[in-house]
Amino acid sequence: MNKRYIVALDQGTTSSRAVVFTPEGRVMASAQQEFKQHYPKPGWVEHDPEDILFSQTESLRAAVRKAGISASEIAAIGITNQRETTLVWDRKTGKCVYNAIVWQCRRTADLVEKIKQAGHTETIRSKTGLVPDAYFSATKIQWILEHLNLQDRAQNGELCFGTVDSFLAWHLVKSHPHVTDATNASRTMLFNINTQAWDDELLGLFNIPKAILPQVVDTSRVIGFLDEDILGVPIPVAALVGDQHAALFGQACFEKGMAKNTYGTGCFMLMNIGEEFRLSNSNLITTTAWRLQGKPTYAFEGSIFMGGATIQWLRDELKLITSAMESEEVAKSVPDSGGAYLVPAFTGLGAPYWSMYARGTLVGMTRGTNRAHIVRAALESIAYQSRDLFDAMAKDSGKMPENMRVDGGASANKFLMQFQSDIMGVQIIRPEVLETTALGAALFAGLAVGVYDNMHDISRVWNAQDEFIPSMAEIDRQKALSGWDRAVRAALYWAEEKE
To answer: 183, 360, 468, 487: most buried by Cβ count inside 10 Å?
Structure first.
């Protein structure tokens, strides 16, 4: 039977998805399962590893059923994942020693402060392209090993560390490979992206034994075959890739200077900067965009911790809306936010501020501020934060991109996309396939097994669907941005008082 389809497993922060694609990039079917978030203490975020594995496996089965295809028709599977989220499991049993510590979790902020105070910031930055932050995996691993007294077991090779891609590969692939790809390794604060290898000096800083680490492989590569118990046939698992890197690839940002923004739980903007490693002067991250045939391509990245999660907060905690879709209608019911600004620094602020202690701030309210104003301010906050990143990237690259490609769930919100175009002053392009994270993983997998011969083949899969053109008067844009900058200073002031 012909191998006519590619499947992407898209393991996210709040849900696991599986998407069946044709080689032309058309979605045949998808399935999704949400799973529980755990908050043991303020600022702590965890997932049950069994929830991750079960929801991903069931989503895969459901997507194949919905597509009405035989598993034997699947050419390859690609895995893309929430990054930095840290798991440690027993090498013999596969059972995790602790819950997954999620990328959003701030419990290791004190460990990061010790590293910074000891003067290691530039060492970390020059080797990894990252700034020291609790966001990344290194201090999460350190915390697990220290708090559970597992240092000896780790040293003896009895334990495996992995980000979610590694965890899924180990459990879904029959041979239990302990691997990760170069994009996910780049997010650990332990991987030298110049040499493309684990760094002994960094491992020493965090007291992490090398024996616990996975092998780092290319982004597009067959790592083994899906356990037959899952779909009944052995299917090549042919790509591991961090979600934002997958989206950059799925958006066909193959040329230097091309940028995309993914509006998910967080927002993540990446710009392709080519094959030469260089550091940002604007507090952006430099990361491995992908690695093919041993050769890395690099990207600048800026991360917003609270993107779509801000809309979830409106829905679940404030009860101001009943669904994410409702936010667009409510926001459009008022002409502006009435002078209100929300800075959703609920778990700190990412690039370009990198303040671990900032907290959410709602300013500029009057007696007339109502539900619609707050909903609108929440949506606008996503666009403002994205503008901060875009301006930083333009400054570092020396050129303002003419447009930005967008994807992710919140990019379906037309109000948000138009406001994003207005506040940035550039064209926003939304593609036919919004699930570009899943598409990128599928394309990487297809490349590994010969569905695609080269990047030119892949570029023909991407097609634009909607374009948003700036329409806001420059004087109004500058006034709005001035208000946002003042609001951010208020959130940062709170951080200073906290310290």
So the answer is: 183
Note the pLDDT tens digit of each residue in 231-263. Answer: 999 999 999 999 999 999 999 999 888 999 988
Kindly report, residue by residue over 411-431, the tens digit of the pLDDT.
889 999 999 999 999 999 999
Question: Six-digit token pair at 168?
Answer: 């899924």
Give the three-state DSSP class for 377. Answer: helix
Pick from 251, 352, 254: nearest CA to 302? 352
How many angstroms separate the Cα of 445 from the Cα of each of 9, 81, 242? 11, 14, 13
DSSP structure string for 243-287? HHHHHHHHTT--STT-EEEEESSSEEEEEEEESS----SSS-EEE
Rg over alpha carbons for the chain, rounded to the nearest Å, is 22
CB 410 within 8 A of CB 263: yes
Residue 499 pLDDT:
45
170 and 180 in contact (C-beta within 8 Å)? Answer: no
Distances (CA, A) of 178 to 141, 169, 172: 16, 7, 11
Which residues, including other chains, have CB under 8 Å from residue 229's CB and lie 6 or more apart?
Answer: none
Residue 65 CB neighbours (<10 A)? 12
Q: Residues with Cβ < 8 Å from 482, sequence gap 6 or more? A: none
**Rounded distance between C-alpha atoms, residue 358 and residue 494, angstroms:** 6
Name the range with the highest mean pLDDT among 203-212, 306-315, 330-339. 203-212
Per residue in 435-478, pLDDT tens?
A: 899 999 999 999 999 999 888 889 889 999 999 999 999 999 99
How much is the pLDDT for 497?
52
The mean predicted confidence, pLDDT, of the chain is: 92
Percent of residues in the chain assigned helix, strand, coil, to nearest 5: 40, 25, 35
Question: Is residue 284 within 8 Å of residue 274, measured between CB atoms?
Answer: no
* Residues sharing a CB contact under 8 Å with residue 180, sequence separation 6 or more, in sequence order: 162, 163, 165, 166, 169, 214, 215, 216, 217, 240
- Cα distance between residue 113 and residue 259, in whole Å: 32
Two structure tokens written together for 235? 């299917």
- Rounded-to-integer distance, Cα 370 and Cα 320, Å: 10
pLDDT digits (tens, 9 = 90+) for 91-112: 999 999 999 999 989 899 999 9
Helix (H), strand (E) at residue 161: strand 159-162
Nearest to 166 by CA among 221, 129, 200, 213: 213
- 332: enclosing H helix or E strand: helix 326-332
Cβ neighbours of 146 (radius 10 Å): 12
Three-state SS for 468? strand
Q: What is the pLDDT of residue 198?
A: 97
Q: Other CB atoms closer than 10 Å to residue 186's CB: what's the count?
A: 32
